[in-house]
Amino acid sequence: MSQYAIAVHGGAGAIPRTTMTTEKEVLFRRGLEDAINAGDSVLAAGGSALDAVEAAVRSLEDEPVYNAGRGAVFTNKGTIELDSSIMDGRNLMAGAVTGIKNIKNPVSLARTVMEKSEHVFLSGLGAMEFAEKMGLEFAPDEYFFIQERYDQLLVAKEYDRVVLDHGIAGNIVPVPPPSKKGTVGAVALDVHGNIAAATSTGGMTNKKFGRVGDSPVIGAGTYANNNTCAISCTGHGEFFIRSVVAYDISCLMEYKGMSLREACDFVVHKKLVTIGGEGGLVAIDRHGNIEMPFNSEGMYRAMKRSNGEKYVGIYLDQVR
Ligand code: ASP
Predict the structure, then answer these.
(1) What is the pTM of this model?
(2) Domain segments of the chain: what residues?
(3) Do 94 and 120 touch, CB atoms closer than 8 A?
(4) CATH class of the 5-146+176-312 domain in this structure
(5) 213 CB under 6 A from ligand 1?
């Protein structure tokens, strides 16, 4: 039987080690394990990479500790606005949604856009109207309310207030709010030799004015092409959009003949770092090579292969 593999992430910018508790780490690791197992079951049964990444991301979206679906962060207005995208490396088909509310599993809506609409990218009310028409599952506001996330919003708003009232040049040096990241994503290779990628997020805490990050942007946060690679990114979205990270890695492989590792290292550790972009990604090629680079303190990540090899890690020194 041909080989298959899956890799997932639960966001870059992990909780600093000094404040990570054993109980929390158990929850984060269990979420990652459940996600790779969900994807692996699909792949082991001969299912497609596309089905596997959707299953893995759905599992992470249902997990309140991750910033996607149920555990999404709050906007400045105290609402939840979700973004997601998915791409099929077989045929470059893609689907994406942004600024949606009350959709239990945004990645499945992104897939429905890809398969059942004549478009690639739907936003806000229109995307929700489409979701309703297609029979996607909705969930009430309470489903998405996580107290810890709301507290993070209050801290972020207080930071804004101090900076606005006093300016950073004054005597008051505000303590920056904790890391705002935690997006989820997956890439997979199936037994048929096809690859796919998917990403889902609540974006960044305290985001304003309908802000959209990289996660639903095909080519920035997500990309898949059987000839090169499948990529799902996480990090400070503005920098990932400006660097067109996922497509850049694919291009470096396609036009410069770089290996997956060379392309990932160049983009994550050189190009992004040069402009101050913090984050990371998971990547796979059709030979089953997997890369999980990041330039942040940590990145929740995991992978599993058909030969039984498995890895779950959060911090840099937890080497594969
Ligand atoms: N990339 C996401 C965004 O900017 C955030 C994250 O990865 O945690 O919306």
Answers:
(1) 0.95
(2) 5-146+176-312
(3) yes
(4) alpha beta
(5) yes
